[in-house]
Specification:
There is one protein chain. By secondary structure, the protein is of the alpha+beta class. The protein is 49% helix and 19% strand. It has helices at 5-14, 16-49, 73-76, 128-131, 154-159, 200-206, 225-233, 244-251, 253-286, 289-297, 302-335, 358-384, 388-393, and strands at residues 55-59, 71-72, 96-107, 116-124, 136-140, 149-153, 168-171, 177-186, 196-199, 211-212, 214-218, 240-243, 338-342, 349-353. The chain is elongated, with a radius of gyration of 29 Å.
Length: 395
């Protein structure tokens, strides 16, 4: 014979203060855990986009990122020797994109411009749009080659000031060259969506740069990226090359440290939730010994009492979890759901948006319910083992 769930529900209502305090502790834990999980998922999703195994990035020998790489133009032309490169089916042009990377110091929108971030400014030519196939114009138009114009990644436009279409952004070595924003582009929420793109010669002139930062190559169908990388590293070209996936895996080493800390915090909070629920259930059992004895007296077996306490903790945990999830959604939608991380090697920021996905919410709710039941298991077992006679004698 099982105890009805209404029995547990009425008991929680009868002890409103204790129940509410426990639920608020659980809600705080779940809300923060949901934010950390959403943050981790958004960052992982952004980095996962930059994992095209058919795209190779080429840097100067010894360089660790585009920001500290410089390729003389005459050295870039050595790449014309590559044979396993994809070509534009219409023009027959080899898909090798010369690119230059500099930074612009722009105000963050989320704090009203009180702080600034290093935003990557990439100089490209038309071939870049054939090499970076995930980059697509979503609003406005592409920059022209005859005017100082730029297009902006969607994430950058949402998080940094001065990047609305029609606005002018100051770029160049002395921030003395005004470039007009003429369009927005998406990059599947990948790292390039945090950048500003403009015509390569115009940006090189504004930045007083005489060399490229990098080159991107798309490998033709059927060819192996490893063979192309080996050829680039050989004596004829002598440059450092790696797939885009490997490049971003290295660039994100510092960022993944944040993910480790976030996971560690989530684990600590999970332990706090277990202790909180266990403490509440111990206090509940201590005050209900006679009640438990009466349940045994009228015929409820130990397993039913054990199950009843577990159900009660599950109700407590699930309710607190729902409140925590709703609090996380409210925080993200009302306060801020934008975030950017500084790259220790690129010296630029990776911008992304945080949102609580249904899957993350379900994981949080299932986890907190399981944790709550685990925390109440021993107190519930203790309650089920209380001898009837000794329990009835307690005052």
């Amino acid at each position: 014979m099982a105890l009805p769930v209404m029995y547990n529900y009425r008991h929680l209502l009868a002890h409103k203060t204790t129940s509410m305090m426990t639920m608020l502790v659980i809600a705080a834990v779940v809300g923060l855990a949901c934010w950390l999980l959403s943050f981790s998922n958004a960052l992982e999703a952004s980095l996962a986009v930059a994992a095209d195994e058919t795209k190779i990035i080429i840097l100067k020998q010894g360089s660790t990122s585009e920001s500290n790489s410089s390729i003389p133009i005459e050295d870039f032309h050595r790449l014309d020797q590559l044979t396993d490169v994809a070509r534009n089916p219409i023009t027959g042009q080899a898909l090798i994109s010369p690119e230059m990377m500099v930074q612009a110091y722009l105000p963050r929108l989320r704090d009203g411009g009180k702080t600034n971030g290093n935003v990557a400014v990439r100089g490209v030519t038309e071939v870049a749009f054939d090499v970076h196939t995930n980059v697509r114009l979503v609003e406005g138009r592409r920059f022209s080659v005859g005017n100082p114009e730029v297009i902006v990644g969607l994430q950058a436009s949402k998080q940094f000031g001065g990047l609305l279409i029609g606005e002018k952004v100051s770029l160049g070595s002395g921030n003395d060259r005004a470039f007009t924003v003429v369009g927005y582009f998406s990059a599947d929420s990948g790292p390039m969506e945090s950048e500003v793109w403009g015509y390569l010669p115009a940006l090189m002139n504004a930045s007083n740069r005489q060399m490229y930062s990098s080159a991107y190559v798309r490998v033709k169908e059927g060819a192996k990226a490893e063979d192309v990388i080996e050829r680039i590293a050989g004596p004829a070209i002598e440059m450092h090359a790696q797939t885009e996936a490997d490049y971003w895996k290295f660039q994100s080493l510092g960022i993944r440290g944040y993910l480790f800390v976030a996971s560690l915090l989530a684990a600590v909070m999970g332990i706090a939730a277990v202790l909180s629920i266990a403490n509440t259930m111990y206090a509940t059992v201590a005050g209900r010994t006679q009640e438990v004895a009466m349940l045994k007296t009228i015929g409820y077996p130990k397993r039913s009492i054990l199950a009843s306490f577990l159900v009660e903790s599950a109700l407590l945990s699930l309710t607190g979890g729902v409140i925590g999830c709703l609090g996380c959604v409210l925080w993200l939608n009302v306060v801020s759901n934008t975030k950017d991380m500084f790259g220790f090697f690129t010296f630029t920021t990776l911008a992304f948006e945080i949102s609580l996905s249904p899957s993350a919410a379900i994981i949080a709710l299932v986890s907190v319910t399981f944790v709550g039941m685990a925390g109440s298991l021993f107190p519930a077992w203790r309650a089920a083992k209380i001898p009837v006679v000794s329990a009835l004698r307690e005052p």
